[in-house]
Amino acid sequence: MGNKTSQDSDVSFIQALAELLRANDLTELQVKRDYAENDSLNVRVSRHVQMAPAPQQALIPAPAAPALSALMPAPMAVQNDPAAHPGAVTSPMVGTVYMAAEPGAAPFAQIGTVVKEGDTLLIIEAMKTMNHIPAPRSGTVKRILVEDGGPVEFGAPLMIIE
């Protein structure tokens, strides 16, 4: 009988995690609960988030509609996508972007900055860890596609270096 109660509480726990994921606009959540020596629950809840939904999708009530349009992007959108640019530097993680080492300091890179491969372009803070994002190649910063203090998703374009 105790096992049935444990399963019911696990189900409600997983539902609460899914709600937390949605309410905080997260893409993934992983939790491990240890009950006893050989009894634990390891849960990973994730969802696909479309990076830049088109405005008309907000008007479509069917939940499958945004996913369907994500599979068939318009040809023009692909050509204008900064992530498709050969000089794009994309985010290796989800986090918060910081353009300088500390508030008030000079930014690591600005439009027109000449960088060498390995130079720090910006910092992405993820789970209280400051991750320095290096330039993957030498060149000149042509475009900066993120804002200081703004959120960034995995794979999102950060800047263009040519």
UniProtKB/TrEMBL annotation:
Pfam families: Biotin_lipoyl. PROSITE patterns: BIOTIN (PS00188), BIOTINYL_LIPOYL (PS50968). Keywords: Biotin, Fatty acid biosynthesis, Fatty acid metabolism, Lipid biosynthesis, Lipid metabolism. One of its GO terms (biological process) is fatty acid biosynthetic process. Pathway: Lipid metabolism; fatty acid biosynthesis. InterPro entries: AcCoA_biotinCC, Biotin_BS, Biotin_Carboxyl_Carrier/Decarb, Biotin_lipoyl, Single_hybrid_motif. Residues 86-162 form the Lipoyl-binding domain. GO terms for molecular function: acetyl-CoA carboxylase activity. Gene3D superfamilies: 2.40.50.100. CDD domains: biotinyl_domain. One of its GO terms (cellular component) is acetyl-CoA carboxylase complex. It comes from the Bacteria. This protein is a component of the acetyl coenzyme A carboxylase complex; first, biotin carboxylase catalyzes the carboxylation of the carrier protein and then the transcarboxylase transfers the carboxyl group to form malonyl-CoA. This is Biotin carboxyl carrier protein of acetyl-CoA carboxylase. It comes from Loktanella fryxellensis.
